[in-house]
Structures are given as structure tokens and as C-alpha cells.
Amino acid sequence: MAKGRIVVNEDLCKGCELCISVCPPGVIKMAADRFTPQGYHPAELVDPDEECTGCAICSIICPDAAITVFRWVPADKIKSTAP
Amino acid sequence: MTDKKMVEALIFSKPESLTDVPTHYCPGCTHGVAHRLIAETIDEMGMRENTVGVAPVGCSVFAYNYFNMDFAEAAHGRAPAMATGFKRVNPDMNVFTYQGDGDLASIGAAEILHAAGRGEMITVIFINNAIYGMTGGQMAPTTLPGQKTTSSPLGRDIESHGFPLKMCEILSQLDGSAYIVRRSLHDPANIRKAKKAIRQAFEVQRQGLGFSMVELLSNCPTNWKMTAEDSLEWIEENMIPYFPLGDFKVHPAIAKSKKG
Ligand SMILES: Cc1ncc(C[n+]2csc(CCOP(=O)(O)OP(=O)(O)O)c2C)c(N)n1
Ligand code: SF4
Ligand code: SF4
Ligand code: SF4
Ligand SMILES: [Mg+2]
Predict the structure, then answer these.
(1) From atom 2 of ligand 4, which residue's Cα is the shortest distance away?
(2) A83 touches chain B (CB under 8 A)
(3) What is the mean pLDDT of residues B64-76?
(4) CA distance A19 to B188
(5) Which of A32, B18, B79, B208 could form a disulfide with B97 if both were Cys (CB 3.0 to 4.6 A apart)?
């Protein structure tokens, strides 16, 4: 089971690639096949081996608050759940 | 596998204290990081309804569109004066200015000096990117010796242009200042430390201890003419040696509480 995942808001992402430069398992890639409404290639999670840990390091460096991070945790440790 | 029930938790999402408006900042510009840290801190302190920010002139001139709270726009360099008025009339409000290095250390040098000297109970978030970003990359008071800008194409020459101003070092000398620290936004670990410092600065204000300022070493990939990733490295390799990170003044009442 995956430990974490991210969702990139393509209205906000500017394709700066900073998230890619800091992601420990290297599971973020630029989507070369499409453009955002602002005209950038967005970042996206490409994680076939389910290596994302939900560490949130990508969201800490993202200048556009474009990344939402989820992580699987024991039910008794929960603060807020995924919608 | 344990048989413990696992659920998918929300670890991070855009803070409530930011609007959904996409910013006009260039890709990779740390103005966006600074905005988010302020917003996260205000969310965590539950002060969104009780905060007023003052935007500068500079790239962050439209900050009021991005923060989901009361905001005003000051004339160039005059944010500390406007914030002084807000705070004196509404002493229970959390009042902060957001200022670039041209705004704060050049045209607004007198304002910031006297606001700190008077010990105004305001918080200043100072974005030092060693350049005038908005106007096309001219030399700022914080431009490093030898740094090429559009108005110093051969590099800043200290013989004719003088030395950069170190605002934390200057303002920490004044009796009115209570919390003066410098942090950097060049990597995730330092961004975390920057957020803690913003929290401490707002605490200093809440406790009425005096003037507080957090200087954040920042990038300008566009005018530095480099990629976002290279610009963060440039901060680490060139700015930090000249503008050392650290605590230049921490009021004893806050130093006793948890470290920031
Ligand atoms: C009275 C006045 N003088 C000069 C200007 C031109 N001007 C606009 S922004 C700016 C400096 C911006 O640099 P900084 O404060 O470092 O902000 P940054 O864009 O780098 O974030 C200047 C000189 C102005 N708008 N108003
Ligand atoms: S850091 Fe943010 S804006 Fe930059 S590419 Fe990644 S998601 Fe997009
Ligand atoms: S949460 Fe961590 S592992 Fe997952 S994409 Fe972001 S940086 Fe990579
Ligand atoms: S010009 Fe520089 S400071 Fe202004 S938004 Fe672009 S990168 Fe940021
Ligand atoms: Mg500047």
C-alpha cells in the first residue's frame, strides 16, 4: 500500500521544478504533454512503485502552495482526513 | 502488516490565510514561500480575523490580493509608518509589514530605522533578494560586492557604490527592537526555521515586547538570470556568507520560551 501521495493544483503550479529538486525518492516529473492555464508544464506525481512517503518536503519548497499532501496513518493518530 | 486501521490523512494543503488567486510572481520566486509561511503561521495562531498586513512597492505590491485578511498598500518605503498608525489605533491587532530590500533599506531606510527606534509593536517581514526585482533588476542597498545588476553591469564596485547595508545588524542596535533575526528560504530545512522565526516575531508582538523583524534571504531567478534551482544555490553560496543567518536580538522574555 502506498504511504503517501500528492495532488498538484494546475491552476497554481508554474513548473519551476523546485519540488522535483527536493523530493527524496524522485517521484515528481514535469508533464511535458500539457500546459496549465498560465502556460506552464505542470509537475505531477509519477510513482509506479508507490515510493512517495507523504513527507511533504515538496510542499515546503513549493512557492505557489500548489501541492496538497496525503499520508496513510493509523486511524487513532488522525488529525484531518482526505476529502 | 498490522491489523491497525489505516486512514489517509491530509498532511498539507494551501493555508486558509491565502486566497485562491494565482500569484503574478515568476516561477520559483521565494516571495511565494514567504507568503505561505506567514499565512500558515497566522492560521496556526488563529489570528486571521485579527491581523492587518501592509504591502510595499516592489514585486510584492499586490500581496493584498494573495493574503486572505485585511491588507493595505503603502507608498514606497512607508509601510512601517502605516503599520504604526494601525497598531497605535488598534493595539490588540496583529500588524505586519511585508517589504523588499529596495523598499525597506533604500527609499524606506528612514521609516524602518525610526519605527524600530520608537519600539513600535509591529512585525516586519523583510525580503532580501539583493536586487530591485520589480523594476528590472537594478542594484539595491543589499546588492553584494561584485554582483552584476542592470545598473551595475560590471558588478557592484564598493569604491564608488559603497558597501551593502546589513539591516539586522543595524536595527538590533536600537533599544526599541525586541526580536531581530535573519533566516533563509533556500532549502526545506531553512524554510522550516524561517517559519519558526515568523511565529516568534508574532509572539513578541502579541506580548508587546517591542519591534520585531524577520529578514528572509530570498531569490530573484528572473533578474539574477538563472534557473530557480540555481538561484537557491546562489543564496547559499553567495548571500549567506555576506548576510550571516542568526539571531541578532531576542528579547529575554521570548528567549526563555521555546527556541526559534
Ligand atoms: C517613489 C517611488 N520611487 C521609485 C519607484 C520605483 N520602484 C518600484 S519598485 C522599486 C524597488 C523594488 O525593489 P524591492 O523593494 O527590493 O522589491 P522586489 O521587487 O525586489 O521584491 C522601485 C525603486 C516607485 N514605484 N516609487
Ligand atoms: S514547486 Fe510547485 S510550482 Fe514549482 S513545479 Fe513543483 S508544484 Fe509546480
Ligand atoms: S511528499 Fe515527499 S515523497 Fe511524496 S512527492 Fe512530495 S517530496 Fe516526494
Ligand atoms: S522579478 Fe524577481 S522578485 Fe520579482 S517576482 Fe520575478 S523572481 Fe520574484
Ligand atoms: Mg528586492
Answers:
(1) B220
(2) yes
(3) 98
(4) 10
(5) B79
